[in-house]
Structures are given as structure tokens and as C-alpha cells.
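Example record used in the benchmark description.
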Amino acid sequence: MPGRRWFVWLVPGICSLALAGCNPFSDAESMTDEYLARLARVLETAQVAEGKLPEASIPPRRRERTLALPELDLGMLDFLSLYGCELQYVVGERNSVMGKVMQPINQLRYEVRFIRAAEACLPEVDDEGLTDALEAAIESKRASLPLAVWNATWGTEEIERQFTLSKGYYPVSETGNPASDLVRDLARLNLQVDSLLSQNLDVSLDNLGEIHQRWQADVLAGQAINSARLLISTLNAGSRILQARLEEQPLCLNGRPNNQSDIVQSFFFSIYIGKIQPYMSQVSRARDSLIEGFAELARHQTTVMPASFMPWYQRHLAADVDSSLWQQLDQAIDRHTRHWQDLLAQCGLRPGA
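Model output (C-alpha cells):
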């Protein structure tokens, strides 16, 4: 009997895995490989090659992401550095050797400090020419502040590390959220960015260094993108396997369950629902929290976003454009779910019915 034949096949396979001490479902790549192999065997259908993963890339090169900030006239800076208010010290630091090679995060801090100090100094100035120069400097610095904000977020080296595609897949985790620290950082950072872009400078930037360090030490955003690609490829291959079975003789004659349908249903619940779907949910949660946090960070800065960055943003972060990986993942999930429903419906076993 077909059902007994597959039962005989499954038991030795399970035992051999136990003896080998190997769990193919503890790792994303081996999990998806195992799912497709078992799916083809359970359905008595030829396995379908997954093919290449959907296209993805790292962010554009740093020189393409970094925006040039207009510099104030050096003579004006030298003059302001001699004036007796705190602006003197801010400008002096900028004119130092270290100030001329500022990292983006320190450049942003300087721009904010300059505006604050210049505005505080303005009431103390009694020279009309100097007042005009100082007001012009403040206006220029406020106008270019969004450029400094962009450079301190998307123009950094640390963001490249966060989105590397060379560190594998999003971890298979039964509990907790591996990206919780990053998500918390992004929520706070987006509030800070919103404040700065609204010209509200009463916001602390002390945490930016810690955020950048976490971006440097972590690679979860890139891993989430890799896992989206892996799931798209796996689910589309699985849908082709299911479609091939749907085009054959129905799994159940007259809609009545049999031994074969019992095995298929057991596989559906134990492997697809029990193993694959939880990982799909983990990746979807990473999209809704981690990736969406970065998407918001980019979306709020579209007025200064470099043209070369927009296609990368739409492909890897956005969820509402046709070219988005995340739309492709949603489509692959919907297609695969429908195929499973159609197959099990042949036996009156349609999930949710």
C-alpha cells in the first residue's frame, strides 16, 4: 500500500537523523533544503531545483551615499573663532587638525553645536556687520543640517556592515527577538532624526556612537534580506512541486481521505506548519520591525536621498513597490499557501475549512 511504503521510508530516515545527532531544521538553509526534499518524496513527485536566489545587493558605495556639506568662508570662521562667546571654542575645534577629518557622526554633532552656539552668541553681538555674518552662517548651517543627518546615518561605514550579504541567514530562533536591541535603537534614532529635520536641536546625540557600534557588530539586517531571498526561492520551488502534484490524479478519490493523504496531512502540520511557517514568521517580524525601522530612517530623508540610493531602498527596504523583495516574499507565501489548500481540499482536509 502507498501509505505503508512511505511510512517505512520515513521511519528509517528519522532514526538515521537521530543517530547522527543532526537537526536539519536548526539552520535556515538546511531547513529549506530538507523541506523541499521531503515534500517531493511525500507527494511522489520529482524534486524541483530552487534556482538562483532573487537579486540583492549591498548599499551603494560610500562615496555615492555621502553628501557634500557647504563650508562657511574660512575667513569668517577665523574671525568668529576670535569672538568672546562659546562659538569661539566650537569653531576652534573645527579648525583643529582633528576637526578637519571628522567622521559623519562628529560632523553632525559639530553642526548642531555650531547652530546652538551661534544663536546663543547672536544677542551679545553689537556689530551690525558681524550680526549679518552670524545670521547668514546660522541660516546656512540650518539649511544644510539634513545633509549632515543623512551622512551620520546612511553615509557611515557602520551601515555597510549592518547590510552585508556575506554572513548567512537570519537565525532560527524559537524564542525572543534577535533584533530587539537594533529595533529599539532605530525607534529612538528615528525620533531624533525627525526632531533634527524639524529644526528642533534640543535633542541629545550622545547615543549615536553606541548605535553605530551595534550596527558594526551586528549583521541582522543583511541576514533578514538573505532569508527573504531564500524563502522566496524555496516557496516558489515548493509551489512548483505542489502544482505538479495537483495536475496529476487527485490525492483522494471522491474526496475521501486515505493512507497517502494522512501522510501528506501529517507532513503539512509537522514540517510546513511546525518548522517552515515559524521561520517565515520570524523573518516577517524582522521585516515589520528591523527592516521597517531602517525603511523609516531612509523614507524620512527622501528630500536629500542620493539618486543612486533610491533603487536600493526600493528593492531592499520598501514594502510598497513592485520591485521590493518583501512584496515578492508575500506573493511567494500566498501562492504556496493556496497550493497547499488546493491539494488538501481534494481530501476534504483544506486548512481552516
